[in-house]
Structure formats: C-alpha cells, structure tokens
C-alpha cells in the first residue's frame, strides 16, 4: 500500500502530472492578467478563453525542427534543459502538500528541507548560464554572464527572507513551519516585510520584467536561449513555468501558513495561495519598466538586503517576547 | 534686393563671363563656361553671400551634360548652369569653397559617371556594392529591363 | 566602454545593415563615415518613365513620415509649369495638412530623442499624443500615413464644418500637452543636462556644410523656406522663424517645440478664416516645355525638387533632394571628437525614420584597426550608464521657459 | 489523432519576427500598431520575437533591394521549420511603386517563398490581423 502511495505521490499528485498541468495553467493566468493590466485581452481563441494557449505553445515547439549549432557540444546542449526540469520537479516534491507525516522524517519531508528547496530552485540559474555558454553564440554567452551577476544580487535577500519565518517557527522543516503558523495565524503579520522581499527576489529569480535583463539586454539575439529551438526551447519555457509554481508554493508555505488538511483541502489551499502570489508577480511585471543590470544590483544591495536583515531583527525580537 | 536689381549687379560685375536671366519672381539663372566654375562660385560666395548650396542636379542632353548648381539665400534662388561634353565628362570640384557639396558630387559620379576632378572622397555613395563598373543608371541611353519575375504560384501549376 | 563585444557577421538579428562607421581612440570618436544607399530605390530613373499623375503617387512614397512635403513640392512645381493657380481654399487646406504633418513628425522625433537618453515615459507621452494628429489626418484624408490629398490644381478632400470644430478641439488639447513638455525641461534637470553640450555644430560649420531645417536653425542660422521662398498660404499667415543659438541637441529640441507652438497657431488661424470657394481647378494632361525649381520647408528641413518637362506627359528629369541628405555632412562633423556615449543621441537628432533607429554601428579601433560591430540598443544602454556615473546633476543649463 | 493535435498547436501559437528590406517604414509603424492595445494580435497567440531561432512567421515589409537580398536569405535560413512568410504591404508583395527600378528586385517573393500577401500601402493593422488569421485557417485545412 505504501509503495502505491509513494508512486502516486511521485507521479501524479504533487509530482510530475500535477506540476505539468498546474504550471501551464499558471502561465495562462499570468499572461491573461498581464494583458488585462495593459487593457489588452490576451490569448482568447485557443480553448475556452485561451486556457490551452501554453499547451499549444509547448506542443508546437516540440514538433519544430531542432537546430544545434555545429560548434556546440551536442550532449550538453540536449542534456541541460532536461536536467533543469528534473531539479525543479524534485524541488516541487518537498512542498508539504499531501502524505507528509509530521512526526517521522520521510524522504519528502525532513529537518532542513527548506535549504534543499531553496538550493534546488537556484540551480536553474546555473543551467541558464551553461546553456548560454554552450550555444557558442556570443550574445547568448553575454546573456549567460549577466544571469550569474544577477544571481548574486537576488540570492542573499531571498534566503534571508525565507529564513525569517523558519527562525520564528524554530524548525527547518517545511511541514513544521507550516503547522506552526497554522496554529498561530496572528504571527504571519510579523513576516510581512519578508513576504514582499521574497516576492521581488522570486521575480528576479524567474528573470521576469523588471529583472529580465539577460533576455532584454540581448533582446536582439533572444538572450541565453538564442540558439535553442524546438524541444530545447519548449523544455526551458516549461522549466521557468514550473520554477514559478514551485517558488510560489515555497513562499505560500513559509509566509501564508502552508496547506492544511488532507488531499482535497490541501490542494484547494495550494491553488488559491499560489494564484495570489502569481497575480502579484504579474502585477509587478506589468507595472515596471526594465531595470538595467547595474541598477538591479544596486537596488538589491541598497534595499532588499537591509530590509531582510530588519525582518530578521523583528523576528528575533518577537521570538524573545514569545 | 529683388531679382531684377541683383541680376543687374551680377551682370556688370561678371560682364562677358556670364549671362544672367530672370525666370520667376525669386528665380535667377546664370549661365557660365565650365572652366569659370571655381572663380564664379568663389566670387558668388565672397561678394554676393550666396553661401547655401541647395543641391547639384545634372541633365543628360544626349550630346552633352548640363550641370546646375542651385544656390539660395534668404531672398531668392540662383542657379549656376554649365555644360560639359559627353566624351570627356569632367568638372572641377567646389568642395574647397563649399564643403557641403561633397555628397552631391559623389552622387553625380555614381549616377551620371561625371568625373569630378580632385574630389576629396571618391568612394561610391548610392549604388549597391555588387554594381558592375561602367554603367551609370541616370544616363538616358542606359536602359534597364526588369529581370523576368518568377511568379511563385506558376511552378506549382506545371507540376 | 571597455567591455568590447565582437559580433560575428552572421549576427542573427542584423535588422539594418551597417550605415555608420566610427573610428575611436579610447573614448573619443576620431573619425565618422556614413554609408548611404541601403534604401536607394532609384527613384529619379523611375520618375522619367512615369506620367505626372503617377509621379505624384511615387513622390508620396519617398519617406513614410513626411510624405505630404514631397507631393506638395512636386505639385507646386508642376503647377508653375502648367501655368495654373490652385484656388485659395485648396491652398489653405494644403497648408493645414502640411502643418499637421509637421506636428506629428516633431512629436515623433521628440519621442525618439527622449528614448535615446533613456527617458521612456516622455517617449510614451509624445507618441500617445501623436495618435490625436493621426486621427485628424485620417478624418480629413482617409489614411493615417500616405494622405494623397494633393493633386495638380488643388486638393482632393474638403474640410467641412464639424470636421473643423473637432480639429480645433484636438489642437487645443495638443496645445495643453505641449505646455506640459515646455515646463518639463524645468522640472526634470537631467533632461536638459543630458541634451546640452551634445552634438556641437557652430554657426560657421552649419553655413559651410549647408545644413538645413531645425539642425541649422538651432545654430542660429535664420533659414526657413516658409519665410525665404513663401509659397502656399504662408505669406498671409503671421508666424516667426523658431531660432535658438545653443548650437546643440538642446537647441534642436527647443526649436522643434517652438515650431510645434507656431504650427498650432498657423492651423488655428487658417481654420478660423478658411476662404470658401472651389478646392480644385482643372489641370491639363500635357505639361508645356520648361523647367522649374520648387522648394518646400519639410519638418526636417529644406526639400528641393527640380523638374524639367519636354511638352509630353512624362517629365524629362526629376531631381529630388530630401532634407536629411543635406544634413549628413553636418552629422559627420558633429560625430567627430565626441564621446562614444553621445553617438546614439546625436544620431537620433537627425535620424529620419523610426525603423532605422535601430542602426548597426561598426566601431573601428584606430590603434589595432580591428572593426567591431555593436548595435544601437547596446550603445544606448552603455551611454546611459556612462552618463549616470558622471552624475551631471550639478551643471545647470538655462531652459528658455 | 497525433497529427490533428500537432496541427492544432501549430495554428494556435504562431510567433512572429519583423524584417524590413528597404521600405519607407509606413508598414513598420502599422505592424507595431497591430501589437498595441487597440488591435492586440496576442488574442490569436501571436508574439513578437527578437530572433529568427524562436520565430515561426517572418513578417516582411519593404521592396527587396539588391543590397538586402543576402540578409533576407540568411535570416530566412536561420528560422527552424515549419516556417511561414507574410509579405505586408504592396512593396513587399510586388515592389509597389518602385517596380522596374534598377535597384529593386521586386517583391520579397523573389528572394524567399511567401505564404500570405497582405495588400495596402501601408497595410492597416486590421488588414494585417485578417491576413494572419487567414494564414492560420489555410494551415488548418492544409
């Protein structure tokens, strides 16, 4: 019985199938909201209200001709997108959605899994850099280098922001953090600064406007994915979608008190909490113009890092008072 | 200083060198021989303050070329007219006096094949890089037959 | 400026072929060279094969932004050859369309110049207001871009009573917007600081290199064909030449905003006392023998057409010189010994059309002679970074209002 | 069954790349207007991409001048199959008013195969949208 449950866990519910479907749904929500913010309509004619648009994009890219630059390293060129998707999928498994036993540390929930999820979420940035470097297109290489410079800018504030609630809850296990805040919902207000810092850094991690510098700066050549066509590009787009869903899930667990209840109630909580976060991300995408690389780095060190340190200070004070 | 008074002043200052005719309320034509070009232009610029050269246009009159220099100031527009033979189409440059004429002279070289003596910058201006030497598009005798276009739909129908 | 980017010739998105070669030494441009001809379409040879009416259609499509100026110059010349005089009302409508085109072209240019210095909100504002002018032009002539309102002997569309009132309303709205741009210079010091002192062109240089239009008026040369060689209904419209003597890009912005204001007054004056009567006179098919020079003040400068007719219905020779060709020698002068960071702005100061704003530049290092291709958007961002580091806030320049 | 799904996906998300080969830029402004809120082609899933690698549809404007012939060919070859070409405006269709000039080869179909012609000088944004939708329909029943 336990084996069936684990298989079900791995392949259907919070695993492969659910993440794929839900990330395409989230991309549709994002594109629609972004269009509505610019008083446009957005995708309309593929499926009801254009809901199947991301799936149509994905399938179309799958069947397109796959051009590999001759000087590029073939295996690396094909392997990188697949490796990226696996890292982000495994990160998705650790969200405390269902079949998470709170006492016995199992493979999908153990003390310290918050650090693992944060690390797995930042691996794709390295993959983007390698993708840019391996496609031997000068512009993609430059885009890749810029991806790395951005990594240092947003990684520290993100980690600090996530650790705030972990310190308050006094444990490194996502399940326990979520349970702690379910019991003391009033303490959620304490992490409000951390929540916003987390939102902004997640937007930067996903390289979306106003932080899509590696793509925009070399927009003429399409950024790090300049040389990818067909399957590679499809996987990379799917990778960024799943990364968005898992990132939103992580923020929801830590800042919005997780997903209480069994399989159905947990799913319902997961959906409405991640949708709120995605709506906020989409608002940010529509509201701001594109920052330049030096402005972005300066912004994160002048504002994001100090804010998250203040957040930690508040958390320690509250912890003392508790 | 309307056209008539200026034409009288020009007439007696140039004398036999140039014939001046008034062809409109603010239009003056000054016909000169081609070797007088440099001296006339310098005097026009110095004494009569014709500093702005609007453009240089050329005419292919089958047996000879006619080159018109359109000068202008704040009241009227003076055209200096010269003729050069077709066999040796050569004329001296005026960029030393009016630097702004460089592009118009290069254009003459490209499209008419008129050789401009001691022009500072001799590169082609308008024609594509793969343009065969020796044919000049704007000459009357140079005709161009548009290459037979392949209508995309046609070859499908034959198949 | 040290991070050199070398882009292979098979750059996938090379939109616009190389048309600007700059040799630089360290940060200073030592020599500049323009390669024209990428959009050379052999117009003058074509014109000799077409009849006069077809040529009217052809001259409309020389430039997408100032199409009306070329057809007006051509029509004025041929009407002189034919010896016919368009009625008063026709000429007045022709002048109104000319001034409307000047407004939309200046608004477009102000947006592109602001975009070059990274001031995108101004870019959005000017282009949003430009939509009003395009709506007016569409209501009069039926098309947003190529209006085709000119014909020999007058105009083809009339302006009736309610059109006149909507145009006056829109012009009033645009006037309020232009006031906003005027005091924008005061409230936004970086705008003046970034524009002043860039693209120097002294008065003597402007005269020597025969520059035309706002470029030369910004260097204090009072040359405006509407005053020097008045045609259409300019003689009986009160307006003065917009002048500034700062000889740089700031001067060109000032001249263009002044011209916007004078265009509004001209249109209002003409609309208020629009002479009634016919709008067109019958024109013969064959043009008698003769030659004519017709000059016209296009938004970017003096536009000259030389037409020679030989009695048939096809012109013997049509010579067209667009204003930007006259400004190219002045640009080459302006680009010498300036910072690489100033190139995008100087180039936008004269660049005729929007889609070529994405020019590709070949930077040749004067020591090694190694050419390096860099696209305008890269140069623009590096230029903006360059200026931000120099924090030019403390220099104050006089914004004339 | 798989064939139908692939065809459905291909018609529902055509990504576009804009190429100007020497025109008077009247059509380029109208193409940009087609992406603005008033006309919004994203309803049909169309997005403007910056590089030929990501694009399915090449939107061409301007007559094919001799100088720009090899550039157009190179960009066309860099696009992955299946690719389509839309000629926007009379110049891209047949060289329009410049036909017969020594420097013009004719329409863009003398350089690269064209699937859809959109008339107009300049082609209005609504005509461009109508052309793109017709191209998608043509794919559906091909």
Shape of chain D: globular
CATH topology of chain B: Beta Polymerase, domain 2
List the helices and strands of chain B in order.
Answer: HEEHEEEEHEH
Taken as a percent bin, the fraction of beta residues of chain B is: 25-35%
**N/C terminus separation of chain D:** 16 Å
How many helix segments of chain D?
A: 5
The percent range for helix content of chain B is 25-40%
Average residue-wise pLDDT of chain B: 83
Computed Rg of chain B:
20 Å
Low-confidence stretches of chain D: none
- CATH first level of chain B: Alpha Beta
Computed structural class of chain B: alpha/beta
Determine the mean pLDDT of chain D.
83
| Major beta sheet, strand line-up of chain B | 1-2-5-4-3
- Helix count of chain B? 4
Quaternary structure of the protein = heterotetramer
Count of separate structural domains of chain B:
1
Order of helices and strands of chain D: HEHEEEHEHEEH
Structural class designation of chain D: alpha/beta
CATH superfamily of chain B: NADH:ubiquinone oxidoreductase Nqo5 subunit
Task: Note the main attributes of this structure.
heterotetramer, B: 159 residues, alpha/beta, Beta Polymerase, domain 2, 5-stranded mixed β-sheet, 4 helices, 25% helix, 28% strand, C: 401 residues, alpha+beta, Cytochrome-c3 Hydrogenase, chain B, 4-stranded mixed β-sheet, 48% helix
Summarize the model shown.
By secondary structure, chain A is mainly α.
Structure, described:
The complex is a heterotetramer of chains A (322), B (159), C (401) and D (142). Chain A is globular. Chain A has helices spanning 2-12, 16-37, 53-62, 74-93, 113-134, 138-169, 174-183, 192-205, 213-217, 230-255, 263-287, 293-321. Chain A is 70% helix and 0% strand. In chain B, strand 3 (52-61) and strand 4 form a beta hairpin. Helix content of chain B is 25%, strand content 28%. Chain B has 4 helices and 7 strands; from the N terminus they run H-E-E-H-E-E-E-E-H-E-H. In chain B, the strands form 2 sheets. In chain B, strands 1-2-5-4-3 form a 5-stranded mixed beta sheet, covered by helices on one side. In chain B, strands 6-7 form a two-stranded parallel sheet. Chain B has a single domain (3-117), classed as 2-Layer Sandwich (Beta Polymerase, domain 2). Chain B has helices at residues 3-14, 37-46, 102-112, 152-158, and strands spanning 19-24, 27-31, 52-61, 64-72, 77-85, 90-92, 115-117. The N and C termini of chain B lie far apart (75 Å). Chain C is an alpha+beta fold and 401 residues long. Chain C has one domain (43-325): Cytochrome-c3 Hydrogenase, chain B, CATH 1.10.645.10. Chain C contains 14 helices and 9 strands. Chain C is 48% helix and 14% strand. The two termini of chain C are 36 Å apart. Chain D is an alpha/beta fold and 142 residues long. Chain D has a 5-stranded parallel beta sheet. In chain D, strands 4-6 form a two-stranded antiparallel sheet. Chain D is globular. The two termini of chain D are 16 Å apart. Classes of the chains: A mainly alpha (322), B alpha/beta (159), C alpha+beta (401), D alpha/beta (142). Chains in contact: A-C, A-D, B-C, B-D, C-D. The B-C interface holds B 24, 26-27, 51-55, 57, 59, 68, 70, 72-77, 79, 98-104, 111, 124-128, 137-138, 144 and C 36-37, 40, 42, 44-45, 80, 207-211, 222-223, 227-229, 292-293, 295, 302, 304, 306, 308, 316-317, 319, 321, 325-326, 328-330.
